[in-house]
Amino acid sequence: MQVSGYLNLAADLAHNFTDGLAIGASFLAGPGLGTVTALTVLLHEVPHEVGDFAILVQSGCTKRQAMRLQLVTALGAVAGAACSLLAEGVGEAATLWILPFTAGGFIYVGTVAVLPQLLREAAPLQSLLQLLALLAGVAMMAAIARC
C-alpha cells in the first residue's frame, strides 16, 4: 500500500474518534440530542467512507482489504463514544468540553480545509451556494446546542 493509504487510515481513525466523542457526549446531554447527532454523523459518514474506500483501493489495497481496514478505523468511533461515556463518571466538567471541542473541530475543518478549496474551484454562484450550505450547517449546530 502506498503512503497515502496509511495517511488516510490515520486521518480516518482520528476523524471517527471525534465522531464517537460527539455521539457519546450528545447522548449524555439528552436522548434527543444524541439521536440527532448520531443521525447527522451517519449521513456525513456514508459519502466520507466511500471516498476513503476509493483512496485505499487506489493506494494498492484490494477491495476486501479496504473493507477490513475501513472496519478497523470505524472502531475509532466506538472508542470515542466510550471515552465520552466514561468521562461522565469523572465529573460534569469533563463532559462540558467534549461537545464544544468536537463542534469546533468540525467548523475548523469546514472553514480552513474545505471552504477555500470550494471557493477556488467553483463559479461565483456555486461558491455562494456552498458558503450558504456551510453557514446552514453551523446554524443547525447552534440550534441543536439550544435543545
From TrEMBL:
Regions crossing the membrane: 69-87, 93-115, 127-145
Keyword Secreted part of the UniProt annotation: no
Gene Ontology biological process: intracellular zinc ion homeostasis
Cleaved signal peptide residues: none
InterPro entries tied to this protein: ZIP
GO molecular function terms listed in the Swiss-Prot or TrEMBL record: zinc ion transmembrane transporter activity
Alphabetically ordered keywords of this record: Ion transport, Membrane, Transmembrane, Transmembrane helix, Transport, Zinc, Zinc transport
GO CC annotation terms, alphabetical: Golgi apparatus; membrane
Catalytic reactions on record: Zn(2+)(in) = Zn(2+)(out)
Keyword Transmembrane in record: yes
Subcellular location: Golgi apparatus, cis-Golgi network membrane
Membrane association type: Multi-pass membrane protein
Family affiliation: Belongs to the ZIP transporter (TC 2.A.5) family. KE4/Catsup subfamily.
The name this protein goes by in its record: Zinc transporter SLC39A7
